[in-house]
Amino acid sequence: QQPVQSPQAVILREGEDAVINCSSSKALYSVHWYRQKHGEAPVFLMILLKGGEQKGHEKISASFNEKKQQSSLYLTASQLSYSGTYFCGTVLQGAQKLVFGQGTRLTINP
Amino acid sequence: NAGVTQTPKFQVLKTGQSMTLQCAQDMNHNSMYWYRQDPGMGLRLIYYSASEGTTDKGEVPNGYNVSRLNKREFSLRLESAAPSQTSVYFCASSPLRDRSYEQYFGPGTRLTVT
Q1: Are A63 and A21 in contact (CB under 8 A)?
Q2: Strand, helix or coil at A57?
Q3: Quick one: which of A27, A92, B74, B87 has the fewest CB in 10 Å?
């Protein structure tokens, strides 16, 4: 059951904020966020476990709303280095397997 | 500490040829994974190995076989390559399987089947 990410793509100017959403139709155990720069491997950002927690990583943070089966990734005061494709991955409750969304391409312009 | 390494980095095959993609990790991880990445499709799991000696199918296993040679190495074999297998292949590893653990990805193998 692939999670759905929105938007599919976003273009920002340096310093602007962005929000990327990840939704599931089934109950989630955990949400994983990765960033992939063009031509490179995905790199882990953070994991959120059920319990509605919020985590942060530099100026990148995320929340997990269990009731809505949704996670949001927040990029504050975006930097050029934030450009890339962001993937969420979800693990359903009672399951072990991580399934990735289709990705959100983020472009930061000077 | 090299992390996850993959060979080769690039490969061009003709339809019907076979090849093996190699993956090794030096982090003493138990679990290893093979993904393929196609434009607009995200990362799709082909096979995984939760621990040494075990392998299981993922979302898109048809046309592939795997071998968990030892704790460090996990190979992916294409017995008879097809153009639909043109993709970027990533190997990944994690301390334990999925749920609460981050995965570490290798640099990828870019495969073209003509």
Answers
A1: no
A2: strand
A3: A27
CB contact under 8 A, A98 and B44: no
Distance CA(A13)–CA(A78), nearest Å, equals 8
Please identify which residue in the block is written with the tokens 């393929």: B36
Calculate Rg over the CA atoms of chain B.
Answer: 13
CA dihedral A36, B90, B47, A25 (to 10 degrees): 10
Q: State chain A's mean pLDDT as an integer.
A: 91
* Res B7 pLDDT > 90: yes
Cβ atoms of A93 and A27 within 8 Å: the answer is yes
Instruction: Give the closest of A29, A87, A96 to B97, CB-based.
Output: A96
| B29, B49 contact by CB (below 8 A) | no
Measured in degrees and rounded to the nearest 5, phi and psi for residue A41 equal -85, 155
Q: Beta partners for B58?
A: none
The amino acid at A97:
K
- Single-letter code of the amino acid located at A104: T
Beta bridge partners, A1, equal none
Q: Give the pLDDT score at B108.
A: 97
Contact predicate B103/B3, CB 8 Å? no
A80–chain B Cβ distance below 8 A for any pair: no
